[in-house]
């Protein structure tokens, strides 16, 4: 069953914390694919070649089907896993986090590391913000040119999201509809266009 919605990172950015003289920089970014996540990790590593560690975690897929984490030399399970757990606990999807650590001379111990790595990801999410994306079904409404303007206005005034407009022999208006709205929408469309519009259902998309 596909997720009806997911949360992702609002924008790319960096949040810094200092814990017992160690600097922790959490770089966060949205990532549509695993390849994008890996490119971002490589970029951050390049920016911080002298860092003690560049640990990462990412979650791809609305259903979190791809999850990866790396401790990058920290004791096993003390960095990447708590970072990943913070992302999944907050329902974050299609996102990548890299925590760069510059060691400050004070050992944190396993518990301290887990709290530090997980905590800085949580702080970064709060600082950079998140957006919720809901699942919509794309549908194309085809009407003649005469009715197109009124139909567009009617769609917008009832809170429907117009995604695209295509002008040809007729006008195609692409809308994004919540699945639950589909049966009612067909009836509404027939009523508002006096049965002159045709409705073609397309694929699915996630949008704010």
TrEMBL record:
Residues 21-125 form the Impact N-terminal domain. Residues 141-195 form the UPF0029 domain. It holds the Pfam family Impact_N. InterPro entries: EFG_III/V, Impact, Impact_N, Impact_N_sf, Impact_YigZ-like, Ribosomal_Su5_D2-typ_SF, UPF0029_Impact_C, UPF0029_Impact_CS. Belongs to the IMPACT family. This is YigZ family protein. It comes from Streptomyces goshikiensis.
């Amino acid at each position: 069953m596909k997720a009806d919605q997911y949360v992702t990172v609002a924008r790319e950015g960096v949040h810094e914390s200092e814990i017992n003289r160690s600097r922790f920089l959490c770089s966060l970014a949205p990532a549509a694919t695993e390849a994008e996540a890996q490119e971002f990790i490589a970029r951050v590593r390049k920016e911080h070649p002298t860092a003690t560690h560049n640990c990462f975690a990412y979650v791809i897929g609305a259903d979190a089907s791809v999850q990866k984490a790396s401790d990058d030399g920290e004791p096993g399970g003390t960095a990447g896993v708590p970072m990943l757990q913070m992302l999944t606990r907050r329902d974050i999807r299609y996102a990548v986090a890299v925590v760069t650590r510059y060691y400050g001379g004070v050992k944190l111990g396993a518990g301290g590391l887990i709290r530090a790595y997980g905590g800085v990801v949580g702080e970064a999410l709060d600082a950079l913000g998140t957006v919720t994306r809901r699942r919509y079904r794309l549908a194309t409404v085809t009407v003649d040119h005469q009715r197109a303007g009124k139909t567009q206005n009617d769609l917008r005034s009832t809170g429907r999201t117009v995604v695209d407009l295509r002008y040809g022999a007729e006008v195609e208006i692409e809308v994004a509809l919540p699945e639950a709205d589909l049966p009612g929408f067909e009836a509404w469309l027939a009523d508002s266009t006096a049965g002159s519009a045709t409705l073609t259902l397309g694929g699915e998309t996630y949008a704010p």
